[in-house]
Amino acid sequence: MATEDKFAEGQSTNEPAEQKPTLYELIGGEQDLRALVDRFYDLMDLEPQFAGIRALHPPTLDGSRDKLFWFLSGWTGGPNLFIERFGHPRLRARHLPYAIGISERDQWLQCMDMAMEDASIVPALQEYLRKAFAETADWMRNTHG
Description:
This protein has 9 helices and no strands. By secondary structure, the chain is mainly α.
């Protein structure tokens, strides 16, 4: 915002800019983000329509749960837990060993949609996250199928 605009609105130019909450805060912080990730992997494990992406994961999902939680923590503006442990996420490179096509992308997105709904993420935030997840999920594709 231009200084003139701040002044015109009656704001002192010496006041700090109003800080908007992060996605991490809007989701509800550590506890609610962990609940979202846990629900995502619970659904992946339980629902037959996610068998394709479940097959890409190890028999136990504990490590996957932690890694997604750590990644999303930093990605949403919370603590950079993934980077602290592993360095730069290099998402595409880390997923290249797995065949990710349209079906896998769509399963991942549907699973996350259901998890967000079950975790009671407010609709406007769900929509924002859905768009961001869709862009990333599409970028992760490495096969045509």
